Each structure stands twice: as structure tokens, then as C-alpha cells.
Amino acid sequence: MSTLIIGMGMVVAHGPGKGDADGTQARPAAASHRECANFFAEHGISTPSTLFDTLSDTYYFAKNRAGQFVWGNRLLQEQHDLANVADIIGKTDHDFFRRDIADRIRADDLAVIETGVTVKNKLEVIDGGKGELTWLFTTKAPLRDRDGRIVGIEGFSRDARRSQDTIAPFHEFKACIEYLQAHLTEHIGIDHLARLSCMSLSTFERKFKQHFSLTPKQYILHMKVHEACRMLPTAGSIARVAAETGFGGQSYFTKQFRSVVGITPKQYLLSLAAGRAQGRRRRAGALA
Questions:
Q1: How many CA atoms lie within 13 A of 181 on its CB side?
Q2: Does an H or E element contain 112, and which?
Q3: Where does the chain show beta strands of DSSP type E?
Q4: What is the pLDDT of residues 53-102, one digit of tens each?
Q5: In order of start, what are the domains of the chain with their CATH numbers?
């Protein structure tokens, strides 16, 4: 991608969790809930359109410099299991995601705030702790006040499963993506993908990275890991998943899985089990 890329690659968030941002990161003073609610009026910015609430495949969000949400649409509310849209005001990503994941999101936000450079179509994968992985293409831009000063960030994440055309944003990559999906467990040559896309190797690699925020090799790795995440809950064996997704030995698979997801396959399965147990407790409480 031609714009700034922070934390290159796939972000996988597991279940609700709390924590603080890394101490090395700049942390402006947190605003009160009232200040967050009045954010747009205070800075002379028009409030986001209510049309954002009608989107069925896109999460819209806006945050202040401290990383607190000052706006979110209804789909974002549903994603975080909030009773009301207003409940997200004043909260941060650390209220919803595991610390290391929230820290990574915060680093992205700070990069946009500090440089003023927009991040476009960064590929992320979110796991809400229920075993459902969601592919997202996230764009973030600086939010400026009436005087042009950067006072926060706003952005949107498009759900690729809800909007299938976003997985291949340009027709020229359609054959390439379809081939990857059909031959994921095989050795895939980047030069072959370039030919399928009717491009030279150098042009293919440049355009692919620009559109997907990943090199072709990184994208293939992430697709393999995504497939492994889908298989792990029912496979009965980590070694079997390693073999069937083309990683070979379990040790190499674990290393590659951790490089993408941030935790080992075993820890991932434990995370899913904890998420399912929490879901059962919530349902039981609702029926009580």
C-alpha cells in the first residue's frame, strides 16, 4: 500500500479483555464521558451522518487523541454486544479486546494522529471469542477540528464476509484469489499468480501489496492460518491441521501460526473454549 502501514498484516482479536496501552506509547489524558459525548461540538466538527447506522457490512468509528470512542454506528454496537449505541462513548479498544491486540490497534491510531497519513484497506481478522473469524478491510484517517488540527481519528472496517466483493477489490485479482482459495494447501508460486493476473512479477507484487496491504507471500500465509483457525475446533489434532493446511510439521506450524495470530494453536483453542463457556453463562443468565 502506498500509505503508512503499521503492524503489517493480519490482526486477530480474541475475546473481551482489558488492559492499558504500552507505556512507551504517547497517552493523552482521558476525557470524561461528557467530553467524549460533546467531542464534535467542542471541535466544531459536524457529527457523523445517521446513515452510518444503516450500513450492514461496515463498522464506523471515531476516537479522540486518547483513543476513546466518540462515535460508533449500530453495527459496531452489535459487534461489542452493547445495549445502546451510546454505550461505546468514552470506552477504548482495551475495553473490548485482549491487551496485545488493543495495543496494536492503538499503535495504528497513533501513527495516523502523529503523521496525518491515512491508512487504507489494512487487512485484519477479528475473533470475538465465539469461534467466528471476521475478515475486515480497515481504513483510518485523521480527524481535524475547525482550525485543521488533528484531534483524533475516524475510520471504517468493511466486513468482507458480509460484502464479498471487498475480498477482491479489483477485477484484475479475481483469478488470483480464486486460485489461492482452490489450491491453498499446495505450493503456490508467486510468478504463477502474476501470470493469472496478466502482470509481470514486479507489477503484480507492487499492486498486490498496494491493494491488500500485504505481500503475496504474507497474504498466502495469512489465508493458510485463517483456514487453520477454521479447522482447529473440530480437527481433534493440531498436527493434523498442520499437515492438511500445508505447513508440514507441527513445530513449524505453531511458529507460523503464532507469528500471525500472536498466540499458539493450543492457546487459540483454549480461547475459543473460554468464549463458548462465557456465551453459555450469558444465555443462562438471560433465561434466569
A1: 8
A2: helix 99-115
A3: 12-14, 58-64, 69-72, 119-127, 133-144, 150-159
A4: 888 778 899 999 999 999 999 988 888 888 887 899 999 998 887 776 78
A5: 12-164 (3.30.450.20), 168-262 (1.10.10.60)
